[in-house]
Amino acid sequence: MGNVNSLTGTSETELARCLNLMENSLNHGEKAKLEVATYSLPTKEDLDTMWAEMTVSGFHVSKPTARIVQGIPLTSIVITKGSPIWAAIIPLIVPIAVIGLIAFGIAKIETITRALLPLVLAAGGLTIIALGIMRQPAIKAAETYARRR
């Protein structure tokens, strides 16, 4: 099998499959660059933690770098063949994706709020209407209860 130039995975399963294909195409000691697109750039601390966890696990990797390319945040790592199974790197990358999703949610909070506002207003309006409708029966029940005492 010749060297694979580029593979793309859009889920953990696809990415694991692509990493295994990439590893199988390399000779021992050759290097490959892994780039993961996220919603936001990870912090320096996140990159340091990711690198520390991978090196402790026995992976031969460069320090991860993060940059924005054409508006897309990318995290890059150079992996050397001879490391443990590449697909095992995926669980170490997932926390960065989660952090990216949280940051994306925080950045889009205004849009999310605008989308939820009509639902909250409708629910509040229906609650007020329901309370108005149930007011008379509740008053009658309270009067009946008071007369019995």
Q: What is the number of strand segments?
A: 3
Number of domains: 2
Cross-sheet strand order for the largest sheet? 1-3-2
Number of H- or I-type helical stretches:
4
Shape, please? elongated
**Helix/strand order:** HEHEEHH
- How far apart the termini lie comes to 91 Å
Largest β-sheet summary: 3 strands, antiparallel
- Identify low-pLDDT runs: none
Structural category: alpha+beta
Oligomeric state = single chain
Integer-rounded radius of gyration: 27 Å
Helicity level: 55-70%
Determine the mean pLDDT: 77
β-sheet strand percentage: 5-15%
Structure description:
By secondary structure, this protein is an alpha+beta fold. Helix content is 57%, strand content 14%. The termini are far apart. The protein has 4 helices and 3 strands; from the N terminus they run αβαββαα. The chain has a 3-stranded antiparallel β-sheet, with no helix packed on it. The chain has helices at 12-25, 44-56, 90-107, 109-148; strands at residues 31-37, 65-69, 72-80. The protein folds into 2 domains: 12-107, no CATH class; 111-149.
Helix and strand layout, with pairings?
Elements: H1 12-25, E1 31-37, H2 44-56, E2 65-69, E3 72-80, H3 90-107, H4 109-148
Antiparallel strand pairs: 1-3, 2-3
